[in-house]
Amino acid sequence: xxxxxxxxxxxxxxxxxxxxxxxxxxxxxxxxxxxxxxxxxxxxxxxxxxxxxxxxxxxxxxxxxxxxxxxxxxxxxxxxxxxxxxxxxxxxxxxxxxxxxxxxxxxxxxxxxxxxxxxxxxxxxxxxxxxxxxxxxxxxxxxxxxxxxxxxxxxxxxxxxxxxxxxxxxxxxxxxxxxxxxxxxxxxxxxxxxxxxxxxxxxxxxxxxxxxxxxxxxxxxxxxxxxxxxxxxxxxxxxxxxxxxxxxxxxxxxxxxxxxxxxxxxxxxxxxxxxxxxxxxxxxxxxxxxxxxxxxxxxxxxxxxxxxxxxxxxxxxxxxxxxxxxxxxxxxxxxxxxxxxxxxxx
Length: 346
Known about the structure:
The chain has helices spanning 5-13, 28-41, 48-51, 62-70, 90-93, 97-107, 130-138, 156-166, 173-183, 187-200, 208-214, 223-232, 235-246, 254-273, 279-286, 290-299, 305-322, 332-344; strands at residues 20-25, 52-56, 79-84, 114-121, 140-143, 170-171, 205-206. The chain is of the alpha/beta class.
């Protein structure tokens, strides 16, 4: 049956295991985490060399996998077989009725001492197909691409706080926002950054300085500081940051900056047009962290409605130019210079 990532992790923590796992979809972070749990915790260390087998899809056939699953464990009552990069396995790359039947037969008559895990990165099985239906009857399935597993941008700060708490750490609001603004919705990159921090700080509280010092984010030129310059309409600070961004286009592509600015000003327009001032109300209305909502409450004092309409209109125009849909004889640095002029001097 299909379960969410949180349901599966909860069951694993309570020692509730299935015999077959089909882990698939685009959010490979969840697949990796479940796989790591089994690698680290399922088989006792002294028995891993005999009873824990890890294969890669490109290097093995379904016949060999089933043969391995049918063999019994040595000096233990359980065995673990993991197929990483299973999207490269012959049976999942092309339809083959004979091979499908081999796997379907095994799924209906599993070896009770073996736990088998398929990890399909960036691939999902056709849910109308016979093979998937067979998995659904006998296995625990994670579809990491489903909306039930999706961590949306506005949910990201709470998700990070939850992950940090699991490690018995805490994280300050400004550290949280610098992390989310500069890494974005890449769960694996966020997890790697947090693990680096855990290994290098003595305190149990993650601060803004920890993020800046250990994650490789420039202290002055980052998206957090960029938004701060927009909030306060600080033309000097904004110009310096924009100049840094346009000089480092590989790290800060113009499309990313346009999307970022459009998101900020669109939300600010909602707050301004509805005359919202309470941070809790703002947080609920535009789906941002309560700490961020205070920034929007501050920003609306520095913009009129007409200015916001004009800025959003120009950002849309800039988007068309950046995509080549509208001609304008200017490089990216000049384009961003124009938006600085529109923001602060018009």
